[in-house]
């Protein structure tokens, strides 16, 4: 869960070099961003916090909460 002081976007990806094609989860609903996804043991992913605008420099503080849920 992403709580940001700016309009944030949250991505989960397995490759920062190929972000559009390697995105596992994305939240950009203009409120508290939340993603849910499954991983295998040992699988590496990157959590990316970004600003929602491509035309304005957005920055600020944020809190990222990560919770593991066993199935």
Descriptive labels:
two-stranded antiparallel ribbon; single chain; 3-stranded antiparallel sheet; 32% strand; 5 strands; mainly beta; 71 residues
Tell me what the structure shows.
- It is globular, with a radius of gyration of 13 Å.
- The protein has one helix and five strands.
- The longest helix has 4 residues, at 19-22.
- The chain is mainly beta and 71 residues long.
- The strands form two sheets. The protein has a three-stranded antiparallel β-sheet.
Sequence-ordered SSE layout with sheet pairings:
Layout: E1 2-4, E2 8-13, H1 19-22, E3 23-27, E4 46-51, E5 62-64
Antiparallel strand pairs: 1-5, 2-3, 2-4
Question: In which order are the strands of the major sheet placed?
Answer: 3-2-4
Provide the helix percentage. Answer: under 10%
The secondary-structure class comes to mainly beta
Report the radius of gyration as a whole number of Å.
13 Å
| Spatial shape | globular
Mean pLDDT: 84
Distance between the termini: 19 Å
How many strands in all?
Answer: 5
- Which residues form runs of ≥5 with pLDDT under 50? none
Our estimate of the beta-strand percent is 25-35%
Number of helices: 1
Helix and strand pattern: EEHEEE
Biggest sheet descriptor? 3 strands, antiparallel
